[in-house]
Design brief:
With about 400 residues, the protein is an alpha/beta fold. The two termini are about 20 Å apart. It is about 40% helix and about 10% strand. The protein contains 16 helices and ten strands. It folds into two domains: about 110 residues, no CATH class; about 280 residues, TIM Barrel (Alpha-Beta Barrel), CATH 3.20.20. The strands form two sheets. The chain has an eight-stranded parallel barrel, surrounded by six helices. It has a two-stranded antiparallel ribbon with strand order 1-2. Helix 10 links the parallel strand 8 and strand 9. The structure holds iron/sulfur cluster (2 copies). The site of one iron/sulfur cluster has 15 residues, from helix 14.
């Protein structure tokens, strides 16, 4: 029965939209590829020291590359990262419905606890991602409980960093129950450091985190395609001055992929661009193959951007309408009469096509309140996207993922 269903989905082309990882049946070869590549990736016994930077006032020094584990295929793959010198492993409660935290915990459980750093993003129950708001009646205890459940999944007595995701607005970040919960978790020794994770309004979020006095770290979208570089650089400097250590993600602006017709893309150049800013301590890179890991680790040894690399970034930024990366500027939100959370839907689209991670795409999709085919009621789309995306076409396309039973998605 399950086999028939899988065959049916493959026939309808859903594997095509999400890459080869949609169904367990096609996950095997990917894992096998990663495992065989992993076997060729040898570390010289002792864990090598990688180029590193201090992480704010935490006292930690972190290699310039950290591992986002959402796409990590196996326990062995994460261990390969550790053996290669990666120290920080980032998961989230919503990656694979908690399975990703279990995978990370399993990979690291026998290692000396002070030799790695684990972080996770845990959304507070009832978070309204579209409005960027927390429930008015939220209690600190409920967020403490969310964090404790995460600890159980990791199988650890503490996580080093707990990030509050969807943090865009100041009032969200400085909301008393959250600050209370973070403070209590630190006191109880269940987390060492509190943080925020932000996709949109990142400059505002970084400043709010720095002002709150409770956050030690932040994770922010930062890449060569951002439209507000000056404001972001000022906010990064502001956070650094307050002692907040910053990780950057979404650094390749769409997983290094774009729509057909876009110019070729140099991911090394994109990552180097991010690390030119000394206030970014490390990049969270969502690696899924040893080749990607090897490439990232080679890149951090020489951060100088050549003329050719700069030119390639300029070219890649010249056709925003072909991007998979949505700048999360939210200009579209008030234009849609159905009040769809278009930035979240564009993130889901990017996870599917750019990161080739259907489970992550589905998790982003599930956070959006909408019917099966939300754009079908509109004769014409009233949204004019700042990047020139055909949002209706992208939403109609990604909405199909809702019809796939979650057990068919990797994670
Ligand atoms: S206007 Fe376009 S780029 Fe901006 S958030 Fe909306 S979809 Fe993304
Ligand atoms: S077609 Fe455009 S205006 Fe209509 S629901 Fe979809 S995004 Fe909104």
């Amino acid at each position: 029965m399950a086999k028939n269903l899988r065959r049916e989905f493959l026939k309808k082309g859903l594997a095509g939209i999400c890459g080869a990882a949609v169904v367990p049946g096609v996950m095997g070869p990917r894992s096998a590829r990663a495992a065989s590549a992993a076997a060729r990736f040898t570390s010289a016994g002792a864990v090598p020291a990688l180029p590193s930077r201090p992480l704010g006032k935490t006292g930690l020094v972190t290699p310039l590359i950290s591992m986002g584990t959402a796409e990590a295929p196996t326990v062995e793959f994460i261990r390969q990262g550790y053996d290669a010198g990666i120290k920080f492993f980032f998961s989230a409660t919503y990656y694979g419905h908690g399975n990703n935290e279990r995978l990370v915990g399993q990979a690291l459980k026998d290692l000396p606890r002070d030799s790695f750093v684990v972080g996770t993003a845990a959304a507070a129950e009832g978070t309204d991602t579209r409005a960027g708001a927390l429930p008015k009646d939220m209690k600190a205890e409920s967020y403490v409980k969310t964090a404790e459940e995460s600890l159980k999944r990791f199988g650890l007595d503490h996580v080093d960093m707990l990030f509050l995701p969807f943090a865009e607005k100041r009032e969200f970040i400085v909301f008393d129950p959250v600050l209370e919960a973070m403070t209590a978790l630190k006191k109880q020794g269940k987390i060492r450091f509190a943080g925020i994770a932000t996709h949109g309004g990142c400059d505002v979020a970084l400043r709010a985190a720095a002002d709150a006095g409770v956050y030690d770290v932040a994770m922010t979208s930062y890449n060569f395609k951002i439209g507000n570089k000056e404001a972001m650089d000022e906010a990064l400097a502001y956070a650094a001055k307050a002692g907040v250590g910053v990780f950057a993600f979404k650094t390749t602006a769409g997983g290094g992929r774009a729509k057909a017709g876009a110019p070729p893309f140099d991911s090394d150049a994109a990552l180097k661009w991010v690390l030119q800013n000394p206030n970014v301590s490390s990049i969270i890179s969502g690696m899924s193959t040893v080749e990607e890991m090897r490439k990232n680790l080679a890149m951090i040894k020489d951060l100088k951007l050549s003329e050719r690399e700069l030119q390639s970034l300029k070219l890649a930024a010249a056709s925003p309408e072909l991007d998979l990366y949505c700048r999360q500027c939210r200009q579209c939100a008030p234009q849609c009469p159905a009040r769809l959370d278009i930035p979240a839907l564009m993130r889901s689209y990017m996870y599917a096509y750019g990161y080739r991670n259907p489970a992550q795409a589905r998790a982003a999709l599930d956070a959006v309140e909408m019917g099966g085919d939300p754009c079908s009621a509109c004769e014409t789309c009233r949204v004019s996207c700042a990047s020139g995306f055909d949002v209706r076409e992208r939403i109609t396309d990604i909405a199909r993922l809702k019809a796939v039973p979650p057990e068919f998605l990797r994670g």
